[in-house]
Design a protein that fits this description.
The structure is a homodimer.
Chain A: H1 5-10, E1 16-18, H2 27-35, E2 40-43, H3 50-63, E3 68-74, H4 83-92, E4 97-102, H5 105-114, E5 118-123, H6 126-134, E6 139-143, H7 158-166, E7 173-176, H8 182-190, E8 196-198, H9 200-203, H10 212-220, E9 226-229, E10 237-240, H11 243-255, H12 261-264, H13 270-279, H14 302-325
Parallel strand pairs in A: 1-8, 2-3, 3-4, 4-5, 5-6, 6-7, 7-8
Antiparallel strand pairs in A: 9-10
Helix pairs in contact in A: 2-3, 3-4, 8-14
Chain lengths: ~325, ~325
């Protein structure tokens, strides 16, 4: 047992969250993580409509009695997304924990908190954490350079970002990006965080609703197997370094600041990314993966994984570290 | 007291090393760190000749009775440097601890180990750590993306790099880059390292032989105040984001893969960097600083600093972490 301000606040057993992941955060995974004593999170926008999300939440409730949350990510997108309708659907469903991410916390955090929903706001900088705290977030999920998906443009790593953040905000902070094992959990707690958020590690679990090829690829990969793309567009994203990602990197290196989204659009459609997860062709499209692929070597169940991480962190604290100060 | 495989191996009190730093690692700083119970290190190539280095070592001996080391960095350079003569001078001086860095450990590590000198090899990747271990290094100093100076081209952060490294090498590993306080020390120990190496943090100490303006600038800076330059030349360096660094970044963004050293040479001479430290004009030249400037807020003595870091790490282990598992 590892008790922190975060586990107390949310009434969960272990300080381990499965963060929102496009195409991955469905009821199967969220319920498995919550059943394991962590906090599972359904990714709102993976569902095509607010109505479909309501059904997905209902499906998750049939698989677990434990608390779980819903993620709502607000990012600029080509097709217009009715974020507000999704937010209303989440509130209407009786969900009590929401993970927000992306821009506009000023608008969405109060919508949720006014409805009695606790908001975990995920962000990649101290200044955004302070903004989210001011608007009523209950928890900051601070997301380092290591993370899959959008690390922002500051490139501050968790080793520096976690302490910088906990020094400034008063609400509990959990750490996100780069976590896969009990060493990471112990690290986060030592630096002042109250828990960890994991994405990529949960992709490589039995219950993750994605093709086995993807899970096995993550388990085989090394710490140098991710790449940052869209840096030239100031919309940086960390993805698995497959053939398409390498081609995007090549084009961006060549065109530099003159790169246009049109130069890359044929390579990076969201539809192709979704197909990687469905069909298991690793090189078919761009897919997000964190630097922590280098520390992932197996495909356990969520129960096995969460138990192992917590047990390892406890052993480090009670054993290795205690012995060093004895 | 924090006892680790590293402190035992080297016979030092605290698992805190002051790594080699060009123009900074002189006898004043190295002796102060060693007197504080850490391991001070003189930067070999800051001395203009091997003979001058021998004198600097002698000067350091007059300031401390504790163990200290010498750094020898082997990097490509425009002016030819007689690395082998420096190595012989170090051995001849009776120094028993050397920090090597850069290329060619295959040649220099055996030279030192054959003479009974323990080698801490600093490197930025697991594969280079394995090479150094094979050639007889006693300790690996693994250096993450956060570090000042040369982080390599892999961009793997300490959160991932430390565990990836300790999983592969058998000799003790200390962690370098991004460290400034007891939270960092506790983090490194939790992840499997046996100590930490700090550079930038020691620049902002009373004893560091550099201008007060530089120390104060480090203490004021935030976590976004460093920049990576020379990425286009595949010779990446993390430096303080002053006006000159911003101009280099601008040129590299514009020219991309077509950037040539000639495009930047007028901005980045080593002589100008040295003058920053001597004269205190922050914007005069390029100077190295790690991302951890964002966690440095004062200019203590080395004694105050090392004691505080160790006490804070102990308090985290005995207090915060122990309470979480109670």
């Amino acid at each position: 047992m590892l008790k922190t301000r975060f586990t107390e606040l949310l009434g969960i057993q272990h300080p381990v969250v499965q963060g929102g992941m496009q195409w991955v955060g469905r009821a199967e995974l969220a319920s498995a993580v919550s059943n394991a004593g962590g906090l599972g999170i359904i990714t709102g926008l993976t569902q095509p409509t607010p109505e479909a999300l309501v059904k997905e939440i209902e499906r998750c409730r049939q698989m677990t009695n434990k608390p779980f949350g819903v993620n709502l990510t607000i990012l600029p997108s080509l097709r217009p997304i009715p974020h507000e309708e999704y937010a209303k659907a989440i509130i209407g469903s009786g969900i009590k924990i929401v993970e927000t991410a992306g821009s506009n916390p000023a608008k969405f955090i109060p919508m949720f908190t006014d409805a009695g929903v606790k908001v975990l706001h995920k962000c990649t900088s101290v200044r955004h954490a302070l903004t989210a705290e001011r608007h009523g977030a209950a928890v900051i999920s601070i997301d380092g350079y290591e993370c899959a998906g959008h690390p922002g443009e500051d490139d501050v790593t968790n080793q520096v970002l976690i302490p910088a953040c906990v020094d400034k905000v008063k609400i509990p902070v959990i750490a996100s990006g780069g976590f896969a094992d009990g060493r990471g959990l112990a690290m986060a707690l030592a630096m002042g965080a109250e828990g960890i958020n994991m994405g990529t590690r949960f992709m490589a679990t039995k219950e993750a609703p994605i093709h086995d090829n993807v899970k096995n690829k993550i388990a085989e990969a090394g710490e140098r197997d991710t790449a940052l793309i869209f840096r030239t567009l100031r919309n940086t994203s960390r993805v698995f370094k497959n053939k398409i990602a390498e081609e995007v990197v090549r084009i961006e290196r060549e065109k530099g600041v003159n790169t246009k989204i049109e130069d890359l659009a044929h390579l990076v459609s969201g539809e192709r990314g979704r197909k990687v997860y469905e069909e298991g062709d690793i090189d078919l499209g761009i897919w997000s993966a964190g630097m922590v692929v280098g520390l992932i070597h197996d495909v356990p169940t969520c129960q096995e994984l969460v138990s192992r991480i917590v047990a390892e962190a406890e052993a480090i604290i009670r054993g290795r570290l205690a012995k060093m100060v004895a």
